[in-house]
């Protein structure tokens, strides 16, 4: 049967373009009618490419591919979410050991399926990268968790930090405000570093145990050292500023997508014993754990809603680009 869909794409000029398409589900794919989609900063990186935008989709399954019942328990009517990845190969060493986010032959946003995107009415999605949304999570809150939430949860889930450890979080924004919530609910001390004193009350409300500005970093002896540092700010910081507040053998996770080089020297890594870890969106198992944890502990993004129309996409992208979004935009399909 398949589905005819409308999708909002980028273009060579950077304008949002409305397009149409059709998809018949492949054997391990399902058709999902999109109800909500988060607006991620990474969408901006592909604004000048002729591809469907949006990769934080949530919706209802309307059709199953011929083999879906053989490889999964998804059924028509399930509420599901999808993120950065569209499909994992399932046969490489990384997939077989639970590290699907390091799959050697994945399909993901920006490299495949340019005709479709979650800024649209429907998508076809492979079940290897599809996730059921727990009942406790509202659809409007689920979208930003599929990429933003998974991105910040992954290092907290896999790095070895434990309850009581100190998690440094640079930035109180689309990623940072989620990182604060996850870290605090996991029993860690969420130590926030921000260039804006005005965000202190919000950071504390999200669960931060401490809040510091650049003026505080000028006196690092007054700050207890952190065991892990998550960089969630839109601009990469000068890491040398943070070395004095890092514990020996600490880990740094640059989570913001950036093409800029990081200012770090081997001597700094040797002296402090620090490790800089590349960490993308979560593996399938970690993604499921994130959703379950968010559902149990009531973790949700602070959102602004826009209609899932061409004008809504333009407005949401502009607000995000201008740094005015507080803190995640969500597109809502017309009823």
From TrEMBL:
- Enoyl reductase (ER) domain span: 14-331
What superkingdom heads the lineage?
A: Eukaryota
Q: For this UniProt record, give its keywords in alphabetical order, as a comma-separated list.
A: Metal-binding, Oxidoreductase, Zinc
Q: What InterPro entries would the database entry show?
A: ADH-like_C, ADH-like_N, ADH_Zn_CS, CAD-like, ER, GroES-like_sf, NAD(P)-bd_dom_sf
Q: Which Gene Ontology MF annotations are present?
A: oxidoreductase activity, acting on the CH-OH group of donors, NAD or NADP as acceptor; zinc ion binding
Keyword Metal-binding assigned: yes
Q: Which SMART domains does the annotation name? A: PKS_ER
PROSITE patterns listed in its UniProt record:
ADH_ZINC
Q: Does the keyword Zinc apply?
A: yes
**Cofactor field:** Zn(2+)
Q: Which family does it belong to?
A: Belongs to the zinc-containing alcohol dehydrogenase family.
Q: Under what name is this protein listed? A: NADP-dependent alcohol dehydrogenase
Specify the species: Pochonia chlamydosporia 170
